[in-house]
Amino acid sequence: MSRPLEGKLAIITGSSRGIGAAIAENLASKGCNIALNYTSPSSTSIANDLAAQLTSSYNIRVVPIQADIGSPEGPAKLVQDVKSAFSSSDNIFQIDIIINNAGIAQNALLPDVTIPQFESTYRVNVLGPLLLVQAAQPYLPKDRSGRIVNISSVSSSTGFVTQSVYGGTKAALEAMTRTWSRELAQNATVNAVNPGPVEGPMYASNAEVFLEGIEGWIKHTPLMKAQEGDVKDESLPDGTRAARTGEIAGVVGMLCGTEAGWITGQVVCANGGMVMLH
């Protein structure tokens, strides 16, 4: 079977679990080598296990690398560690794909938002991707074959209660996506993927006031209507389901292929048909 990303190298931030791990598997199945980034030492064993599984299943090279994307030094350290791990014997090194997936949400009503919450969320969700692309730019392809995909959220434009900070970070990420698509036009396409609710602990941890506010959107989102056999998610209204991580990964994988070479500067909605406000 043809593997369209054979021999390419991807950096995926926050990829030890959840959407990031699903993206890693999607790209690995297409022949891509993976730098599997994670932040916390507590994720080391999970990242190592995933690396071993992907290596065995897809006969590719996967290297887990710990680096804190939310620290000033973390993104540059990640790029240097990836270079050390993946440079060829004649010191040739190229980063073909960057997936800015790592993100945090610290939701609060306006009176309860704190400066530390603001600063830490913007460091991880906005400054981290910027510094990573900045550090990686010298190693991007020169023929437009590179791919950068930023994982955004419907919260960038829907104005959900408690998401002054998180929604703002995702709007900033989308703005940077459009700018980078111009500045890096000779190197890579740059797009964002905009999911709605996705299975996993991040969505389930939202406050009740947020879950109540998004309920109407979910009920009117075409592909979030549950089918027979779908597992009930207690954080979602009856008769609905969240996106599977593999479904989001499929959209990201599509944008990383050669067929997507004429798509750049776009926010691709992977939210099941949730109506967006613009």
UniProtKB/TrEMBL annotation:
Belongs to the short-chain dehydrogenases/reductases (SDR) family. Residues 8-201 form the Ketoreductase domain. Keywords: NADP, Oxidoreductase. It comes from the Eukaryota. Pfam families: adh_short. InterPro entries: KR_dom, NAD(P)-bd_dom_sf, Sc_DH/Rdtase_CS, SDR_fam. This is 3-oxoacyl-[acyl-carrier-protein] reductase. PANTHER family: 3-OXOACYL-(ACYL-CARRIER-PROTEIN) REDUCTASE (AFU_ORTHOLOGUE AFUA_1G10100), SHORT-CHAIN DEHYDROGENASES/REDUCTASES FAMILY MEMBER.
